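During the no-cost extension, the postdoctoral fellow (Dr. R.K.) reprocessed legacy sequence entries with the updated structure-token encoder. One reprocessed record is reproduced below for audit purposes.
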Amino acid sequence: MFKLKYLLLSIAIILLPIQGQASSISKNAFLSMAKKQIWHEAQKLAQVCFELDKHKSNKVLTQSFATCSQKLEENIDGSQLEVELTHFTDCVQMEFNHDLALSQEMLFQCDEKMAMAELEQEKPADQVLSDYANFINAGLKAHASQSSIDDVTLPLYPNSQVVSHLSNKQMTIGDINVLPAIVLATNADFDQVRHFYQQKLPRYKEFAIDNGIIFMEQAPVNFNILSHFALYTSTPHVLIEDMSSNRINNKEGKTKIEISYHD
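Re-encoded structure tokens follow.
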């Protein structure tokens, strides 16, 4: 029905790195993320299809979440994340349908109404990309909230905010080792951030990349991220990217900082 399964499976894709990074996810973190992604879509469905106001739809959703959350463990096995998300989606949808006494015919008609409403309100490409960026950031932030920045062994830029943090100690991509990494965002100018790390990491080598620079602890003079990808993922570095002209990805800050470090 109201796209819950597709939304939650998208969340699963966002959180796939957790399966290699953490053995479990807390029940509260799971519910917090699920609620953020479900609530608006469910309210829209209730209004378009059944003419329910927000108060009524919130009440039904709250009860559906409460009932389904009782079936969750306090800690969810990371390897079973997609399965648990699917089960939780099915449960919320079933409780929602039951509480509103929705018949199969009503649900079928609702699907048609929602499809027509989407065609009438089709968003511009930029808006779709912007919404997707917000969705991704919400997932990354929820994940980052479970990690400690105290583990980061390279300097953090002052007053920056954490966008994501993969603090895994033994993660791999195929046969390639991957160091822990944290991504920060700041409204400081690119040149300010660059100067800060030039002062803090004087022995690191500096290389130009698209829209920014990267400071590498060790790298050949012809270093290139794509051709030296294994070195990039396994070597401590600070990558600084100017996001000021990127309308989609600059919402967290004008400058993005990726720090990969030895734990």
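Confidence is low (pLDDT under 50) at residues 1-22. The helical segments are 4-21, 27-50, 54-69, 81-99, 104-120, 125-144, 190-200, 229-234. The remaining legacy entries will be reprocessed before the final report is submitted.
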